[in-house]
């Protein structure tokens, strides 16, 4: 029986790389589907506790802001007994469709570290041993940033958005009766968008590695980045200044961290060049 011979990544053809990528994508998709199936079976918990959590006034975020308002002696909508809106499904297959898609998104969020792992398995053979050594914590750091963003989106952005939009009325004659898909979309956008935004340091790391970004560029366009962050904050939050500042603040901190990361990457690259030059001089 012939033994399977592992192919050298440097000797693989374009089609071989595509085949390798295909299997990584298949395994990632299977992981998402399996976790999604578990989420579908546990749909009662997923919807009642997680998805509809920010629509209940006993949600931790509302309790925190209510206590803060009480301590400061001011009135607040966060201390209300109930949010003045209802959630309903207006189509025959609305609830079933929402259940399926929510399970898929839960599968993606929970399975994110494994998806990263599969991506890393595809990319890492093309890196130098030294680069692989310095990137060992990639999956852990990227996953931690993503889940931090997800939690920030769920416990800060989503409840602020739901509370603002759910209590906003142009007239008392108009009732807030939100469609199920609209409500889930608001929660999903807040969670996923914040998870992706918090990946900024990882994105800057790779952009610096390929030479597209430098600390000088990041500093030069800091003001433009501030405007972009505020625009993104306005997109994923309700149209009030407080919510936008709450979202923009951690992203700006991550931007500053990204500048530092870019400096570290360039410093390491410079050291590697110096070592290679010294090695070349010794050989001559």
Describe this structure in words.
The chain is mostly helical and 284 residues long. The chain has twelve helices and two strands, in the order αααβααααβααααα. A two-stranded parallel sheet has the order 1-2. Helices cover 73% and strands 2% of the residues.
Helix and strand topology:
Layout: H1 14-41, H2 43-51, H3 60-72, E1 86-88, H4 94-110, H5 112-123, H6 129-134, H7 138-167, E2 177-179, H8 180-197, H9 200-209, H10 215-220, H11 222-236, H12 241-283
Parallel strand pairs: 1-2
Helix pairs in contact: 1-4, 1-5, 4-8, 5-7, 7-8, 9-12, 11-12
Distance between the termini: 49 Å
How large, in whole angstroms, is the Cα Rg? 24 Å
Task: Estimate the global geometry from the Cα principal axes.
Answer: globular
Mean pLDDT: 82
Total helix count?
Answer: 12
The largest β sheet comes out as: 2 strands, parallel
Low-confidence stretches: 1-5
In the sheet with the most strands, the strands line up as: 1-2
| H and E order | HHHEHHHHEHHHHH
Count of extended strands: 2
- Strand pairing plus helix content: what structural class? mainly alpha
β content, as a range? under 5%
- Percent range of helical residues: over 70%
For this entry, give a set of tags.
284 residues, mainly alpha, two-stranded parallel ribbon, 2 strands, globular, disordered N terminus
């Amino acid at each position: 029986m012939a033994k399977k011979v592992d192919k050298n990544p440097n000797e693989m053809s374009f089609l071989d790389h595509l085949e390798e990528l295909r299997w990584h994508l298949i395994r990632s998709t299977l992981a998402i589907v399996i976790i999604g199936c578990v989420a579908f079976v546990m749909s009662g918990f997923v919807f009642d506790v997680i998805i509809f959590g920010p629509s209940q006034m006993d949600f931790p975020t509302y309790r925190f802001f209510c206590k803060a308002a009480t301590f400061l002696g001011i009135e607040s909508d966060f201390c209300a007994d109930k949010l003045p809106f209802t959630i309903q499904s207006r189509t025959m297959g609305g609830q079933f469709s929402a259940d399926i898609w929510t399970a898929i998104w839960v599968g993606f969020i929970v399975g994110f570290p494994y998806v990263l792992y599969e991506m890393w398995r595809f990319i890492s053979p093309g890196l130098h041993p030294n680069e692989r050594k310095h990137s060992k914590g990639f999956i852990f750091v990227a996953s931690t940033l993503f889940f931090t963003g997800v939690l920030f989106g769920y416990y800060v952005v989503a409840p602020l958005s739901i509370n603002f939009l759910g209590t906003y009325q142009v007239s008392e004659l108009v009732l807030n009766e939100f469609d199920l898909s609209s409500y889930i979309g608001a929660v999903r956008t807040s969670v996923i968008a914040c998870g992706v935004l918090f990946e900024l340091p990882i994105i800057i790391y790779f952009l610096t590695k390929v030479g597209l970004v430098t600390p000088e560029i990041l500093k030069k366009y800091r003001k433009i980045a501030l405007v972009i962050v505020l625009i993104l904050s306005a997109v994923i939050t309700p149209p009030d200044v407080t919510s936008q500042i709450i979202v923009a603040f951690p992203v700006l901190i991550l931007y500053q961290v990204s500048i530092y990361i870019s400096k570290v990457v360039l410093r390491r690259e410079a050291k590697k060049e110096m070592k290679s030059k010294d090695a070349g001089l010794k050989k001559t």
